[in-house]
Amino acid sequence: MNGLFTVADFKKKAEEVSKDSLLFTYFKHGAEKEITLKHNENIFRELYILPKCLVDVSNVNMNTKIFGCEAKWPVGISPSANHKQAHNDGEIGTAKAAGNVGSIFILSSFSMTSFEDVAVHAPNTIKWLQMYIYKDSWDKSGQKILLS
Ligand SMILES: Cc1cc2nc3c(=O)[nH]c(=O)nc-3n(C[C@H](O)[C@H](O)[C@H](O)COP(=O)(O)O)c2cc1C
After folding, report:
1. What Rg value do the Cα atoms of the chain yield, rounded?
2. What ipTM was predicted for this assembly?
3. What are phi and psi of 33, to 5 degrees?
4. Which residue of 25, 80, 118 sits with most ligand 1 atoms within 8 Å of its CB, as the best mutation to test the pocket?
């Protein structure tokens, strides 16, 4: 991770170490028309760092509360499928990494690791679950209410 600072740095490194170019293409793109991806990149281009001299920054608090969950900083990991394709640690590795920095980890319905295993191995991470609800199976299942 040495020398990796920006998203572009990570992207370049990922491409270098990726053994499968098709897989890299899958992970590097955004979903559908990449509207959010482009929007995020544009927003970040508009942000400037204003250096503040002689200000004590040894105790910066970025704690925030999102849907009742106390995160250490306002960045989470949105759901994405197939983490084991990228690394053997799969979703457990991502969940642990999120927990180490106090982020929220959202587990995909298409996780390659069971929800239970992620829960056991990353007990201290704030975990949310993304769920696809298929109309057909929902209709046929006879359920009336979904609780999470
Ligand atoms: C490689 C990849 C896999 C993704 N897998 C899922 C998924 O399994 N479930 C889900 O709800 N969203 C998934 N997403 C969507 C992301 O969580 C996120 O909402 C989306 O990328 C936002 O940017 P967009 O609007 O440009 O797609 C995935 C996105 C990418 C790039």
Report:
1. 18
2. 0.91
3. -90, 10
4. 80
How many C-beta atoms lie closer than 10 Å to residue 96's C-beta? Answer: 17
Over the stretch 18-58, which tens digit does the pLDDT of each residue have?
878 888 899 888 888 999 999 999 998 999 988 889 999 89
| Positive or negative: CA dihedral 29, 35, 38, 43 | negative
Query: How many other CB atoms are there within 10 angstroms of residue 40's CB atom?
Result: 13
Task: Report the separation in Å between the CA atom of 89 and the middle of ligand 1, taken as the mean of its atom positions.
Answer: 20
Q: CB of 36 closer than 6 A to ligand 1? A: yes
18 touches ligand 1 (CB under 6 Å): no
Q: Is 116 in the pocket of ligand 1 (CB under 6 A)?
A: no
**pLDDT tens digits, one per residue of 52-109:** 899 998 999 999 999 999 999 999 999 999 999 989 999 999 999 999 999 999 999 9
What's the rounded Cα separation, in Å, for the pair 69 and 65? 5
